[in-house]
Amino acid sequence: MPATGPGPFSHLECQLPAPRRREGAVLRYSHAWERGRGSPAHILLSLQVQPPHPASIRMLRGHQLPVTCLVISPDDRFIFSASKDGSLIKWEVESGKRLCVVPGGKKGTEERHMGHASHVLCMAISSDGKYLATGDRNKLIMIWDAATCKRLHIFTGHRDAVSGLSFRKGTHQLYSASHDRCVKVWNVAENAYVETLFGHQDVITGLDSLSRECCVTAGGRDGTVRLWKIPEESQLVFYGHQGSIDCIQLINEEHMVSGADDGSLALWGLTKKKPLALARQAHGMQDAQGLQQPYWISAVAALRNSDLLATGSHSASVKLWKCGEGFRKLEPLWDIPLVGFVNSLTFSAAGDFLVAGLGQEHRLGRWWRVKEAKNSICIIPLKRRAAAPSPEAPDSPEAPDSS
Amino acid sequence: MSFEELLQVQSDRRTRVCKQVTGGKKTAKPAKATVKQQQSKKGPLEMSAKKPVPFLRQVVSVTKKVRRDPRFDDLSGEYKPEIFMRTYSFLDNIKKQEKEMIQKQLKKCRNVEQKEKLQQLLNRMIQQEQAQEKQQKLRERELSLKRKQRELAKQGKKPFFLKKSEKRKLELAEKYAELKRSGKLESFLNKKRKRNAIKDKRRLPSQKNL
């Protein structure tokens, strides 16, 4: 990991950000993080996770229109979600209560309304849990204080809808991607714009970053996934998907996973320009009035530094996958039944639960409408089997009993 | 880290190669996809991230449609009438069917104008057929002549080639035979006599010049 000098968190224990570990949680991350690489020798978490009981899935309703994006605070206590009506809700995980609601404004009230007046497409939260950033279709990025939900600042500068946001772990540096095909770097602590990076040929549909000063973007119809090396001002271009790449997430510093609208799921490594593993028609084929096409993958999530992946579509289920050895294979594990468009998926930092943002429509448009679905967020607990520990973990795992 | 320190660290990190690539000097060679091909061909392409993408850009690769004219294309080969007739013989059947269709329509039709048009169309089709048959006969005659020559040559006699005038005489002889068979010889000869008479009359001196 590059040493960046005295940073905002240097008063904390180490330079590498670590998750808040509750008592009795399995020691999972320390080895992989110290090594700084996602090597296959880490704990095979995917084999320990069990399918949840359908009754234990909680559905929290509060949004009027489909939920488009959500983030979990780094301490796994709060969930922030946003939807197509521009509203922002802060939920408490334990009780399921709404702590703060910032309603969305109508079109035309951008000046006076404290909040978004158009679809919110993306969100990000900094790893110290202080700042929340949201981006909408009106080319604005709004910075909120996560604890009080007060708006602190608005970043303007993008020339089209903002479609991807991510904080660099351990800092207050924000990366944003937009439909105007550029990636911008901002410094939230100082409310400053840093630089712009170009290269995509079509709208950018997703962005993600970890603790390196790099981010990955998914390039929609131009069929490329690009890794941006910001200090060197260069990009690495990966090809291999057919169809528009709609979502992307980093698994660890060396691997990422992306989903496209031809139903294919790809696993990428940084040394090869083609995907390491490709699963076609991951959610099957849909039969919409004679037009047979694969279910689009609308959301993809990865449990950081492990081999568990989750994908969401509107095929009435969220599928869980396991990355094979060396990230060269993709094996389906099991499904979680959820009706509606899964517009966003996130694992909690400790891997205890998975949150899905559901809606009646796709987050980017209104191609279909699933009437039976409810615009809500679902908290899915992931129980872990009390299995024998793999050789890496020094402690014996105690399966935490999540509600 | 303050903003100034950030910028400083950033400028320190920029390697010499990157500076060359992103420097934007006009003396440097303008390369589209650049410099760092030190990685193997299987690795991802590394490009500069600072060059803005132009408005007229290629998002999806579009393949140009290759158009070919089969008349002038080498793939079609040389024109050989027998092969052509054999492969496209189905067209004769279609033409026959169309002729029958038009004859039926002609019988049914009441409208005078349309009847005229249909009649013209029918005549055109019949004449095309006749022209085809004529050409076919010509070709057959040529072939038979060639076959005769070949036989003679095989038998050892010297092959002889007819002059054009001789060929025309033979054709005329055949035509007369045909006409005699169908019984139109008299009318044909009368018409010919009239035509020749008119032509000769034009040659004679007129009364004016007397």
TrEMBL record, chain A:
Keywords: Acetylation, Isopeptide bond, Methylation, Nucleus, Phosphoprotein, Repeat, Ribonucleoprotein, RNA-binding, rRNA processing, Ubl conjugation, WD repeat. One of its GO terms (biological process) is rRNA processing. Its main location: nucleus. WD repeats lie at residues 60-101, 113-154, 155-196, 197-238, 238-278. GO terms for cellular component: small-subunit processome. Gene3D superfamilies: YVTN repeat-like/Quinoprotein amine dehydrogenase. GO terms for molecular function: U3 snoRNA binding. It is found in: Nucleus, Nucleolus. Component of a nucleolar small nuclear ribonucleoprotein particle (snoRNP) thought to participate in the processing and modification of pre-ribosomal RNA (pre-rRNA). Part of the small subunit (SSU) processome, first precursor of the small eukaryotic ribosomal subunit. During the assembly of the SSU processome in the nucleolus, many ribosome biogenesis factors, an RNA chaperone and ribosomal proteins associate with the nascent pre-rRNA and work in concert to generate RNA folding, modifications, rearrangements and cleavage as well as targeted degradation of pre-ribosomal RNA by the RNA exosome. Interacts specifically with the U3 small nucleolar RNA (U3 snoRNA). Binds a sub-fragment of the U3 snoRNA surrounding the B/C motif (3UBC). This association with the U3BC RNA is dependent on the binding of a protein called 15.5K to the box B/C motif. The association of the protein with the U3BC RNA was found to be also dependent on a conserved RNA structure that flanks the box B/C motif. Part of the small subunit (SSU) processome, composed of more than 70 proteins and the RNA chaperone small nucleolar RNA (snoRNA) U3. This is U3 small nucleolar RNA-interacting protein 2.
From TrEMBL, chain B:
It is found in: Nucleus, Nucleolus. Residues 190-210 have a biased composition (Basic residues). Residues 19-50, 185-210 are annotated as: Disordered. Keywords: Coiled coil, Nucleus, Ribonucleoprotein, Ribosome biogenesis, rRNA processing. Residues 21-38 have a biased composition (Low complexity). GO terms for biological process: maturation of SSU-rRNA from tricistronic rRNA transcript (SSU-rRNA, 5.8S rRNA, LSU-rRNA). Transmembrane segments: none annotated. Residues 95-182 form a coiled coil. GO terms for cellular component: 90S preribosome; nucleolus. It holds the Pfam family RRP36. Component of the 90S pre-ribosome involved in the maturation of rRNAs. Required for early cleavages of the pre-RNAs in the 40S ribosomal subunit maturation pathway. PANTHER family: RIBOSOMAL RNA PROCESSING PROTEIN 36 HOMOLOG (PTHR21738:SF0). Associates with 90S and pre-40S pre-ribosomal particles. Belongs to the RRP36 family. This is rRNA biogenesis protein RRP36. It comes from Accipiter nisus. The lineage of its organism: Eukaryota, Metazoa, Chordata, Craniata, Vertebrata.
